[in-house]
Amino acid sequence: MVFISLRAGRYIHRFWGKCTLSLDSFCVFVYPVTCSSMMEIKVKDGSSLCTLVPDGEPHIMQSVSVSEDHRCSSISVKSTPEIEKKYVHRVYDAIAPHFSSTRFAKWPKVAAFLESLPTGSLILDAGCGNGKYLGLTPSCYFIGCDISAPLIKICADKGHEVLVADAVNLPYRTNFGDAAISIAMLHHLSTEDRRKKAIEELVRVVKKGGLVLITVWAVEQEDKSLLTKWTPLAEKYVEEWIGPGSPRVRGPSPFTLESIPETEENGSQAHAKDSNDSLTENMQQSMCLTPQNEDDVLVSKHRMSQQEYFVPWHLPYHRAEVSGASAGALANGLARKDDKKGAVVYDRYYHVFGEGELERLVSGMDNAVIVNKFYDKSNWCIILEKTL
Amino acid sequence: MRLLTHNMLSSNIKGVTNGFPLRIEVEKVVEKQVEINHDFLRNIFPKIDWKAFFDASRVMGYAELPEEAPEPLVLESDLEFLRKFHHALLELHLEEGALVCPETGRKFPVNKGIPNMLLHEDEV
Fold first, then answer.
1. How many beta-carbon pairs below 8 A join chains A and B?
2. What is the DSSP string of A282-336?
3. ipTM value for the complex
4. Looking at the complex, does the CB of residue A173 fall below 8 Å from at least one CB of chain B?
5. CB distance A324 to A330 below 8 Å
6. C-beta atoms of B124 and A78 within 8 A
7. Can you provide one Gene Ontology molecular function annotated for this UniProt record (chain B) (predicted)?
8. pLDDT of A68-106, one tens digit each?
9. For chain B, which has fewer Cβ within 10 Å, the N-terminal or C-terminal residue?
10. How many whole angstroms separate alpha carbon A247 and alpha carbon A57?
11. Distance in angstroms (rounded) separating the CA atoms of residues B35 and B87
């Protein structure tokens, strides 16, 4: 991971959240996909990593390439990374009622799994969202949890038994549940360690012999045009983006975005952001990939290996609170307006899963086995059984 | 929050050895009837930590449960016990109050029947 120390730059502070080490400078800890845990360094750990830049020129303080095995042990896997706070938690909190109104269709595969469980089962739903699956089988009892209080409120209003909790650290006794489900949740966790931990938690909280169903969005989307509406996030982002005035800036300006060409929709191949745009927006854009080649084949190949995305959510103006979350979100760059669509646009962070990835995550577990795995409607799914 | 949930909840604050059971602080209890499901009650009974359940029911203002857990066989035929078990497990709601970590004293708020078990950064 790379730590960048810069002289005061309010826009950076606002965009990334902060880790303030001294009055004169602060470190920007950017999201390193290669690191096994997120970087929200506490001050006491930071002193050895980030020092004042005497000459005022920005430069990289320390560049460490962290492999998946190397743990940033000072940061707990249970600590929520900034990218999830901004692009998962806050977004769902802001869009909860609208999101809930669009979440009603019950996925047959999930329904089938729930209906296959013995009557009288206690079923735990981690990341239950608007509670779509709670109570689906009347002979069973459901307890749901989600990190979003507004979504949980929606569940509670429907009479469900729910609580606000973190799926990476479930506040449940071990072995209590009969079964557990995690539907479209794991893909919002930004590191492999956190995704593994969430799976371990699901297995932990069910009894021996209990089943766990996990579904996640797949890289291999049935509707490929969807991918063009998503914003891919650069793995090597930090190495590409240095900052204003740096001699290492590669031309053209790093503050332009060349979008992956849209399909049929419009003929334009790319559009560059106006360099007069606010720095915040430019920074946000420069986080995204600059394609090397606009050739379709290369683009789609590139897309297949790309797993980190921002997926937009369009919150219609009439739904967005004018004086609430959306106004604030717009003010600090967390959301943008799309007047053409009449909506506030929020980005949601996703790590979409490749074929075999779920199996790989569980392969190291000594207390669970895979009893089923399948691909359905652009989702990878797995059913585990707790063995010990 | 129902007592079924309370019987499952445990404080997961860093450093805590045994975060169960959480102590209940009552501000408001509400009773809501729900249909009895004998299959469920018989399935759930062995999972219940009876002492924690009994103590919690008392705090919630319900005095009908036996202090000692009955033999599982009782659930096969004792409808009266099943009714009381059902009532305490699923029909008593802590609407407002708090759940207190037995080791640290940290309070997890319960508002509108919803416990918030999220930890602060320094508790993780």
1. 89
2. HHHHHTB---S---HHHHHHHHHH--EEEEEEEEETTTS-SSSHHHHHHHTTSEE
3. 0.97
4. yes
5. no
6. yes
7. protein heterodimerization activity
8. 444 445 678 999 999 999 999 999 999 999 999 998 899
9. C
10. 10
11. 10
